[in-house]
Design a protein that fits this description.
The protein has about 220 residues and is an alpha/beta fold. It has helices at about 5-20, 40-50, 60-70, 90-95, 105-120, 145-155, 170-185, 200-205, 215; strands spanning about 30-35, 55, 75-80, 100, 125, 160, 190, 210. Bound molecules: pyridoxal-5'-phosphate. Keywords: Pyridoxal phosphate.
């Protein structure tokens, strides 16, 4: 008897299909399973199925949830998505293997100092406010070159760009713009695409898709 496909298998299959349509290798796309708000019991099936790359949006939640899981699965890679306060930089550097939300000069200073102190250089994406929305995280397009230069000066390994496009409107033009900005700056990785639009993002070059609710169900 066939088992019904798990959400993880379904999402992996959809990523692979989108990659093939775009002439890309499916392995070129990292699925970051966004487990924020979901307890360890919800994460366990993905770990048991071999998934190892997860994302959280709060330092404190990650620190309470992940140490025990990491003891059982030491190869876990934990990514930080979402706003990071400068006063949490040190904890973020100690807790995460990748940071997707470097978005302002004060955070460059704080993360640069934290990485120096810890002797641990955590790869970062610079988050761009791609729709130039008020109240949204991310640096403006105009600020991007200076922020990249500051990050380089601070010894922060910036590996690519990240965005969360405006809600309620076709995301493709924003993904395409992020890809162009990254290429203009010689950056090769793109963190873009969430549950609603990850296939579009993959077709437009995403190397990291951040999928939460499509894997874990709605957040309470
Ligand atoms: C919560 C979150 C996601 C995942 O969102 P879903 O719509 O649940 O897939 C992705 N990126 C960021 C920055 C998030 O905060």
């Amino acid at each position: 008897m066939d088992q019904p496909a798990s959400p993880l298998d379904t999402i992996r299959g959809r990523i692979a299909q989108a990659a093939r349509i775009a002439g890309r290798a499916p392995e070129a796309v990292e699925l970051v399973a966004i487990s924020k708000t979901h307890p360890a019991e919800a994460i366990a099936p993905l770990l048991a199925a071999g998934h190892r790359v997860f994302g959280e949006n709060r330092v404190q939640e990650a620190q309470s949830k992940w140490p025990a899981l990491r003891e059982a699965y030491p190869e876990v890679q934990l990514h930080l998505v979402g706003q990071l306060q400068s006063n949490k930089a040190q904890e973020a550097v100690a807790t995460f293997d990748c940071i997707h939300s470097l978005d302002r000069p004060s955070l460059v200073t704080a993360l640069g100092a934290a990485m120096e102190k810890a002797g641990r250089r955590v790869p970062c994406f610079v988050q761009v406010n791609i729709g130039e929305e008020e109240q949204k995280g991310g640096c403006s397009l105009a600020e991007l070159p200076a922020l990249l230069a500051a990050a380089a000066d601070a010894g922060i390994p910036v590996i690519g760009l990240m965005c969360v496009p405006p809600a309620g409107i076709e995301a493709a033009p924003f993904f395409a713009l992020l890809a162009k900005l990254a290429a203009d700056h010689g950056l090769h990785r793109l963190s873009m695409g969430m549950s609603e639009d990850f296939e579009t993002a993959v077709m437009l070059g995403a190397t990291h898709v951040r999928v939460g609710s499509a894997l874990f169900g709605a957040r309470g």
